[in-house]
Amino acid sequence: MRRHVRIAITGAAGSIANSLLFKIAAGEMMGKDQPVILQLIDLPDAMEALRGIAMELEDCAYPLLHTITLHDNVENGFKNTHYALLIGARPRGPGMERRDLLEVNAEIFSRQGKALNDFANRDVKVLVVGNPANTNALIASRNAPDLSPSQFTALTRLDHNRTRGILANHTGASPKDIQRVVIWGNHSTTQYPDLHHAHILGEPAMRQIDTGWYRDQFIPTIQTRGGEIIKARGASSAASAAQAITDHMRDWVLGTEPGDIVSMSIVSDGSYGITKGIIYSFPVRCDYGRYQIVQGLTINDFSQQRMTDTEQELLDEKAMVEHLLPEETAASHEGLSICLRSGVTLYADGTGPDSGSKYLTTNRVM
Ligand code: LMR
């Protein structure tokens, strides 16, 4: 049996976590042989609700669930954690754009970045879910001077999964037959779901769909799906977000399917001409607990324009929170020049989860 890993989750009493925690405890995220300790974090007035969730988790008698701890502050909750899922944020209500949330959530994420820096395992892998996720991730990362920028990611797997699911429904294929879709940019209405590299049943997707439908209907559907769900449910997506978080972390830790591409928002190293230092969604592959940007995809003029538009939105968001981005971390973020990224889970004695695992035990690349 492997040694346990610690997973800290903010917003743990919320609706995304209510789906997610049971998936993690069942082994869907970290693997069916990986015991976990859940470090659940929420606001002080949510502690009673959190206690109820912990009781339910206990009542499921999951063999992989080693321990649950409850915390009303991130400083305690992040202690020694190997993984941090930052879900808690002020949610978007009907009619609100993600940008409206910037100021409200910026303070939360700078505190969380500092707490990760001071208390988490040195090789913690961080996924930011709370919106505006990309810029919140940037704020957290820039406030963690002792961690590598490559340890911070934001969720665009939800958009990636939506792209596969909706395309499957349109074409009559199964989602498993759809591969190599790419989400570029921001988790917002400017994101660019790119099908130019996608395959349906092994054949180029663009030859199997109508270009007019793709441009005029499909792209806006993906871009506005989150808002549509809020309108319909009166609450933002929960179960599909939990599935996307599970997929993002599982692929990061255990590797992507051979031949496939997934979308992760990560600190730009300048690939595809995207400004260095912003958190932008790229096509990646993961192996050995690391991710690598897929290079060399051909970008046509249509794609280039959309990639630039969503990049510009991220630059505008960054400008709005500049006062929360400490100068001391500017160079580490803007100077990334490698595409093989770090993120190996290490214990204090420098080993991985077990001696026979496929984790590399090198130190961080950064
Ligand atoms: C989503 O995409 O469903 C979530 O990010 C919710 C939102 O605010 O759009």
- Which compounds are bound in this model? (2S)-2-hydroxybutanedioic acid
DSSP E strands, number: 14
Number of domains: 2
Instruction: Please report the distance between the alpha carbons of the first and last residues.
Output: 31 Å
CATH arch. level architecture of the largest domain = Alpha-Beta Complex
Q: What topology, given as strand order, has the largest sheet?
A: 3-2-1-4-5-6-12-13-14
Q: Would you identify the CATH H-level superfamily of the largest domain?
A: Lactate dehydrogenase/glycoside hydrolase, family 4, C-terminal
Walk me through the structure.
By secondary structure, the chain is α/β, with parallel strands linked by helices. The protein folds into 2 domains: 5-154, Rossmann fold, CATH 3.40.50; 157-316, Lactate dehydrogenase/glycoside hydrolase, family 4, C-terminal (L-2-Hydroxyisocaproate Dehydrogenase, Chain A, domain 2, Alpha-Beta Complex), CATH 3.90.110. Helix content is 37%, strand content 17%. The protein contains 10 helices and 14 strands. The chain has helices spanning 15-25, 47-59, 74-77, 102-119, 133-142, 157-171, 211-233, 239-254, 301-320, 330-334; strands spanning 5-10, 36-41, 65-71, 83-86, 125-128, 152-154, 178-179, 182-184, 192-194, 199-200, 203-204, 262-267, 279-287, 290-293. A 9-stranded mixed beta sheet has the order 3-2-1-4-5-6-12-13-14. Helix 1 packs across helix 8 (239-254) and helix 6 (157-171) packs across helix 7. The protein binds (2S)-2-hydroxybutanedioic acid.
